[in-house]
Specification:
Distance between the termini: 39 Å
Structural class: mainly alpha
Helix content: 55-70%
Number of domains: 2
Radius of gyration: 17 Å
Number of strands: 0
Number of helices: 10
Strand content: under 5%
Shape: globular
Length: about 200
């Protein structure tokens, strides 16, 4: 690999290999509006490569992927009005997942994790959960309805049924996870709050 990154041949090989192993979402960034192509190309690259295999093979740092995953999750969490403690809980849960084995879109996974964190908090205090994918948009909180709509409209492939499927796998299933050694040090070193502040539960 040269200093500027993988060649176009490497990129095409990685895309073909990733689509073959189960990450079947393809974002056609070249068809996006001119001012949006850079964003969607980066999303396509990450969505294709978030399972590490390709990046390991061409010696691209995992830290780049970790940073992108973190910023993507925090961007969603900010739009969905999670506080600092809830953001940390979401980061822990997101990074704990083995996304390669889970096989679901990382942006939808992050969105659902944020919703599940707030659902658990609402249940604890006897409040109504701000979001559930089975509800109509008008019955969800406006931030969740807005982001859900953006996810569905972003590439024309994400649907309400797909979001419900991811939600169900996270809530009712037993999604594959990674060992703490693989993700905990990064999350701890890049957290925006203390590891265990007095207001943060031990399981956060």
């Amino acid at each position: 690999m040269n200093e500027e990154g993988p060649s176009e041949e490497d990129e095409q090989k990685a895309r073909k290999r990733t689509l073959e192993i189960g990450n079947r979402t393809e974002i056609k960034w070249r068809e996006a509006k001119k001012g949006e192509r850079t964003f969607y190309k980066r999303l396509d690259d990450h969505n294709r490569d978030c399972y590490w295999k390709y990046r390991d093979e061409i010696d691209v740092s995992k830290d780049y992927d970790n940073q992108f995953k973190r910023e993507s999750l925090l961007a969603l969490a900010g739009q969905l009005c999670l506080n600092s403690v809830q953001r940390r809980m979401a980061l822990n849960r997101f990074f704990r997942l083995n996304l390669w084995k889970f096989g679901m879109r990382s942006d939808v996974v992050a969105f659902c994790i944020c919703g599940l964190i707030l659902k658990k908090e609402a249940k604890r205090y006897g409040d109504k959960s701000p979001y559930h994918p089975a509800r109509n948009p008008e019955n969800n909180s406006s931030p969740f309805a807005r982001v859900e709509s953006q996810l569905i409209e972003s590439d024309g492939r994400t649907t309400k049924n797909y979001i419900q499927k991811v939600w169900g796998k996270l809530e009712q299933g037993n999604p594959p996870t990674r060992s703490k050694d693989e993700w905990k040090p990064f999350v701890r070193s890049h957290s925006d709050i203390q590891n265990h502040p007095s207001h943060s539960p031990d399981w956060a």
